[in-house]
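Need residues for this backbone.
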């Protein structure tokens, strides 16, 4: 079983490791996708993932991190950010089990930012 990620600090450490090794792995995108799937598996909701991705990461990356992490890793993280907020096709929206399953309802839920009212 995967290691339980309880807080942002642990998640940040794992994500930085994936991003720093981006050019060393042919499966870097898969590793990042699995990282976000693991957050969902451990009951992180969209609001917590959003706050982690849009606030915590940006507040905690150092200048050294920006120098050591390849630009393509940040580009892929940007794609994930888009999937979190739903400004993409339905097929690319990050799917979270406790959210609407119907495509139209999920699009309305995500793009309407109804998830922001949830408790983290």
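Answer:
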């Amino acid at each position: 079983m995967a290691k339980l990620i309880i807080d942002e600090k642990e998640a940040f450490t794992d994500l930085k490791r994936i991003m720093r090794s981006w050019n060393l792995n042919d499966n870097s995108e898969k590793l990042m996708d699995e990282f976000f799937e693991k957050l969902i598996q451990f009951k992180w909701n969209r609001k917590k993932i959003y706050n982690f991705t849009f606030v915590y990461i940006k507040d905690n990356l150092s200048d050294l991190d920006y120098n050591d992490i390849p630009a393509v890793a940040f580009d892929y993280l940007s794609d994930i950010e888009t999937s979190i907020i739903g400004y993409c096709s339905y097929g690319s929206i990050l799917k979270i089990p406790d959210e609407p399953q119907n495509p139209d309802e999920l699009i309305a839920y995500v793009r309407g930012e109804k998830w922001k009212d949830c408790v983290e």
